[in-house]
């Protein structure tokens, strides 16, 4: 599953990326494999979304979010 | 050290508090210039508090890592890889936000590996809930670099930071992360063997960012390319591994420094609550539109008080000079050319100041990123990016910062479209044109709660915005781009604005406006005065006798007006205006407006000044009325109607709302797009669109 599958407030652990180019940008922002992320906001029109990762809030489009593989934690 | 000046690069993540520290270090001594070859704003200044040596601080655009994502971010890399450059730093002050320690230290670790001695200015310690638990001494030891806690709000710690810079002695720092941990042996040996005198990490960066690395010649590039080929260099994989390894090492260090390693969630919680409201489907847009509405209100109503005052003062000054100096060319040059010219510049300052105050406030509080978040989905439909909202909002102040603000958009196509449509947003230079035309042709009445004049003004802004989106959509269909668009952006924590930063932005932007835009306006008003006062033939000199001879009536005032208008008609400006009259007549304009159109091709704001000059030349100086009164009494001799009636007024407003009448914007677009193609496209489509729209408006209304 990936970040785009989460609902607001749900958490996951990043396991990997399916897009190399995007992954480099996310890595720079502290979104690393093993890091816990929380889906914190969804824009009114359903896209983009915002996640909390490594103490910061990062917004990304749904399509980009779907390239971040996660393991959901409850 | 070159020229004995210590060059200090100030660098850090976006939102780390870099601007405050720069302001505290340099005060009002800062200079805004450009980095060589690019139009990225370069702010630099001496640090006068250091007495023992000369220190030059250069402020670099905020970045998350040494791998740049946008033109702005690229500057640091090109400067730090070019020892020949004037901006090549002897040392770096890395501003590190304690609330986002790990991510901020990533950049620090890369800078250190580049062989740049770095010290850390740590901000936001005051917002840390577990302030005491961060062992700064241990952290400094682990990072092998001094850490100075500073507070950008009250300046605490700045003395220590300044002392640390003063103490600096050049040295080559130990690398933070050994390259062997992510680069395989074969590549490592080839690289270090080829460039034995360089830091290994620099050689690695030559391979990673060969095109951006500034300090290598074509021969070196050949060597680099050969190594890359022979050792099957995988750029992206290596970069990902490098970043992960850096974070791992930082994790290990931070675990020791923060024994409990609790996550810093306090700040996020506050933001969470606010974001819930600000990105709410209903309240989110409601607040967004409310803020914009409030902004326009402020620009229109608050600014009018100081503006009226300025207008009156300059009017009085002109009158006084005209009455005091002996009659003649000098008197008229000063009272009819220079004074109204300067007045026309200064009168803008309140509006510019209020606009930039709003934009600075939105940036400072962190709201601007939310505006991007809210609008991205809508903007995407039009081939734009949520980040286009920043240029489009800035465009309300001026198209020049708007076009420059588009640099934040990583995708070339989205950026280009934003640049192309930005001038359609009504900038503050159009406001005086609108203001005066609205006052002339729109009655001061109310419809329900709304003032009719205010509604028309709002309508002009809406017109510009709607056209901007429409044109963007067309461009989106026409322009092709292989580059994929994306939006990965931090939503910074909300915080109180730092008023000093807001104040400095207002001061700096107003100053830039007065001295750069003002220069053009000033020169044009003098040129205009000359053009309107002298002519090619002898008609001007003989105006009085010719008109008096033909005049039948006995009204002295009417006679004088006839003489004045005869003079203007036979001046250089008159001939110019008449030359274009056939083209603009269908839009409802006469040749006097034609003169103003020609002169305001350099800059729209010249319109009002031009009108003032054109209509005041030759009028009785003791009778100087405001520009508005003079325009209102102007009668078109052909139709017998007022020159400024509803149809011609609306047509003129629409023309100004659309037309590309700003040479400075064209120049900036040329620099930003690196070719004359796009500014020319822009000039052609905007002028054409303006003409057709104004034509339709006039012919429908008349």
TrEMBL record, chain A:
SMART domains per record: FeoA
Protein name per UniProt: Iron transporter FeoA
Residue span(s) of domain Ferrous iron transporter FeoA-like: 1-72
Record bears the keyword Kinase: no
Keyword Kinase among record annotations: no
InterPro entries: Fe-transptr_FeoA-like, FeoA, FeoA_core_dom, Transcriptional_repressor_C
Gene3D superfamilies hit by this protein: 2.30.30.90
Pfam family, one: FeoA
GO MF entries: transition metal ion binding
Top-level taxon of the source organism: Bacteria
Keywords: Iron
